[in-house]
Amino acid sequence: MRKAQYAMVIDSAKCIDCKACVVSCKVANGTPEGFSRNWIKASEPDFAAGAKPRTHFQPGACMHCEAPICVDACPTGATYKNADGIVMIDETLCIGCGNCIPACPYGARFRNPQKRTADKCNYCPERRAAGLLPACVDTCPTKARVFGDIMNPESDAARLLEQHKDHVVQVINQKSNTAPHMYYLASTAPVDWTHEAVMPASMATMTGVVDPVVKTLVGLSGLGVLVMLGRQLLSGHDSSHDSSHDSGPDVHTGSDVQAGQAHKQQTDKE
Amino acid sequence: MRMYKRHDRSDIFIHWFNAVCWFLLLVTGVGLIHNPALNPFGDAFPQVLRGMVGGGGNLLLVHEIIGVAWIFGFVGYILVNPRGAACFLREVFAVSPDRDMPWMFRKLVLMTLGEKALKAMGQPSALLPQGYYNMGQKGFGQVSVIGGIVIAVTGVIMLLSDVYFTADATVAVSWAVTLHYLAVGVVFAGLLVHIYMAAISPDERPGFRSMFTGSVPEEYAKHHHRLWYEREKARAADGE
Ligand code: SF4
Ligand code: SF4
User: Fold this and answer.
1) Which atom belonging to ligand 1 lies closest to the Cα atom of A197?
2) What pLDDT digit, counting tens, does each position of B198-223 carry?
3) Measured in angstroms, how far is the CA atom of residue A74 from the centroid of ligand 2?
4) Ligand 2: which residue has its CA nearest to atom 5?
5) What is the number of the ligand closest to the CA of A39?
6) What number is the average pLDDT over the span A25-50?
7) Of A102, A233, B15, B189, which cross-links A221 as Cys (Cβ 3.0–4.6 Å)?
């Protein structure tokens, strides 16, 4: 059962695009060059006559979704939603198949080129174990990012959510709504940067075609065995046998070696 | 009673080595699949198994070690007994459709629905004589050989995925997962029948025993593998 739901409540109006969160995340998690677990998106300023051109900055990262498509895409369960609501990657179990990466509508995942496994924000478990906040939250000079368990009404995140409950927004892809647990207060921009989740063809084939085929084949063969066993028990022996020069069963990987000499008849044994 | 040799010591070894590896790989492998849309035996099995070995990562490691040992076992067998391996492949893939297809159909009906059903279909219940392997054995042999190669190749791809593969090559890994599952599923379906026929069906006791002793009694050879029996007899007569 779910015990908690850790989440991030963000006042993106407070973000000044200093990118301290991005830097501290990279330092805390040793993310390789060219990759980042979190980001700041910027809205396009409106230069039309009469408009006030301004840019809105939007901090983001994995949204630890309620209906994470990345979990559906992972064959091994290396990506899973933990009891505390955090979507985790078990690096020791991840085979680096990459299925989960296009399955995230937020592009929150990447394949770590050093570890060669999937990587993304995990809310800094090492830091939390030491009683610290996730690196990005800790670092943010304007406190735009607030982190906590939204199932615990005492937490800052839950209180903030409750206070603004009438004007909280989520960035959602209409075609792939993962019910993200990343909440923006009042309003945020940009909101049109998500993409429809892509389930890799191999995984879609595995769940949609291969799995039913395998289960049907195994089911049919199991049923066949049960029928044969039933006949054997009822009639006392394999009924097909009387009428045939047949043979049955010993299908083995073995073979007859040394074809030539092997069959020189063996010594008369009993 | 005269005995006819069917299996060499290395054949017997590789058969049982394969059986043990398959059992362990199947159990650990099923425990490694954990996905809401798959879970062949439900959610609990992978959880329990992972708990037993101290986490999914350890289970993966165990599966990988046994898998590599399995591949090396076969490489070793082929090195020790190349003629046996070649002979096995030749026998397993030698299908004569006119003889084998009716055999397969009749045998299937006889084993499941019975002789009456076969007669009702207007088919004679006599089975055409078979060679070193009958068509059922050949079918399973073919599935095992092809399936085994697919399983080994896709397994190695997955094994090397987080060692050598770069992000743009993951499409191969992703398909390897799918094919691995498919091949194991198909071979396992055949394996159920193989185990029943060889170890549970009583008429096949001599065949089962030969997987330990290496040879079958004349009566059995004549009855079940007539063409092979005659070939062997002729060969023995020539040699004498
Ligand atoms: S944001 Fe993406 S990676 Fe994070 S839980 Fe949601 S779907 Fe998965
Ligand atoms: S790459 Fe993603 S989908 Fe593949 S095993 Fe790792 S976490 Fe699961």
Assistant:
1) 7
2) 888 887 888 898 999 998 888 888 88
3) 5
4) A94
5) 1
6) 94
7) B189
Radius of gyration (Cα) for chain A, nearest Å? 29
3-state secondary structure of B30: helix
ipTM of the prediction:
0.90
Model pLDDT for residues B50-85, shown as the tens digit of each residue: 999 999 999 999 999 999 999 999 999 999 999 999
What pLDDT does B240 receive?
A: 56
The distance from CA A242 to its chain's CA centroid, rounded to whole angstroms, is 57
- CATH (one of 3.30.420.10, 3.30.310.50, 1.20.950.20, 1.10.10.10) for B3-239: 1.20.950.20
Residues in A closer than 8 angstroms to B37, CB to CB, are 72, 207, 211
Report how far Cα B7 is from the mean position of its chain's Cα atoms: 16
What pLDDT, on a 0 to 100 scale, did the predictor assign at position B150?
Answer: 98
Strand-strand pairing, A6-10 and A182-185: parallel
- Rounded distance from Cα A62 to ligand 1 centre (Å): 5
Mutate to test the pocket of ligand 1, among A8, A37, A69 (most ligand atoms within 8 A of CB): A69
Chain B residue at shortest CA distance from A67: B36
Q: Record the tokens describing residue A66, joined without a space.
A: 């309620």
CB A67 within 8 A of CB A178: yes
Question: C-alpha angle with apex B23: B19 to B29, nearest 5 degrees?
Answer: 135
Tell me phi and psi for residue B107, to 5 degrees.
-60, -45
* Residue A108 CA to ligand 1 centre (angstroms): 6
**Residue closest by Cα to atom 6 of ligand 2:** A94
What is the distance in A from the centroid of ligand 1 to the CA of A185? 20
pLDDT (0 to 100) of residue A237: 52
Comparing alpha-carbon positions, the chain A residue that sits nearest to B237 is: A264
Q: Looking at the CA of A79, which ligand is closest?
A: 2
What are the structural domain ranges in chain A? 6-44+51-197, 199-229
Whole-model pTM over 0.90 = no
Q: Which CATH number fits domain A6-44+51-197: 3.40.190.10, 3.90.1150.10, 3.30.420.40, 3.30.70.20?
A: 3.30.70.20
Per the listing, tokens 């921009």 go with A189
Q: What is the mean pLDDT of chain B?
A: 91
Contact call for B58 and A71, based on CB within 8 A: no
**Residue with token string 């209906």:** A67
Q: Which of A267, A54, A24, A207 is nearest to B39 (CA)?
A: A207
What mean pLDDT do residues B135-155 have?
A: 95
| Nearest chain A residue (CA) to B218 | A265
Whether residue A190 has a cis bond before it, omega within 30° of 0: yes
| pLDDT tens per residue across span A137-180 | 999 999 999 999 999 999 999 999 999 999 999 999 999 999 99
Q: Is the pLDDT of residue A66 over 90?
A: yes
Ligand nearest to the CA of A62: 1
> Across the interface, do B84 and A232 touch by the CB < 8 Å criterion?
no
> What pLDDT was estimated at residue B203?
78
